Amino acid sequence: MAHDDPQPKLDALDRRILGELQTDSGQSLDEIARKVGSSKTPVWNRIRKMREAGVIRQQTVIVDPKALDRGTCFFVLIRTSEHEADWQRRFLDALMKRPEVLEAHRLAGEIDYILKVRVADAAAYDVFYQALISDVRIFNVTALLSMEEIKATTVLPV
């Protein structure tokens, strides 16, 4: 699996290993090997190869947002009338420096960008909003408050 290979070939064992890592990357190699029906060394070698190929981008922990006083989630829809490279660079720079922005996507359709923003409360969202619009001119911003998180996962189907 070369790192520049756009579509690394994953077999059934690779997929089972990825499934286990996505569920709980804190498992020992012995546990993963037992669950996927292999032994420790081949599992380690496959994990190493998938890291080198960029299939596994990083290993991390998932923290309860409420534990860090970030229990309020807004989805922010942004429309812009600006489409030149300088505006886009300034906008992306503004997003990257804001830790409240967990995700940002450029969209097709009427909305240009959607942001997933986690803050303590509505007042904290307003502080974020004021900072964002002071950094870059935005044509229209709509903030949608998530009333309830129904499903949130980082596990991709394998």
From TrEMBL:
PROSITE patterns: HTH_ASNC_1, HTH_ASNC_2. It comes from the Bacteria. The keyword Cell membrane does not apply. Pfam families: AsnC_trans_reg, HTH_24. SMART domains: HTH_ASNC (SM00344). The keyword Transcription applies. GO terms for biological process: regulation of DNA-templated transcription; response to amino acid. Keywords: DNA-binding, Transcription, Transcription regulation. InterPro entries: ArsR-like_HTH, AsnC-type_HTH_dom, Dimeric_a/b-barrel, Tscrpt_reg_AsnC-like, Tscrpt_reg_AsnC/Lrp_C, Tscrpt_reg_HTH_AsnC-type_CS, WH-like_DNA-bd_sf, WH_DNA-bd_sf. Signal peptide: none annotated. Residues 10-71 form the HTH asnC-type domain. One of its GO terms (cellular component) is cytosol. GO terms for molecular function: sequence-specific DNA binding. PANTHER family: DNA-BINDING TRANSCRIPTIONAL ACTIVATOR DECR, LEUCINE-RESPONSIVE REGULATORY PROTEIN. This is AsnC family transcriptional regulator.
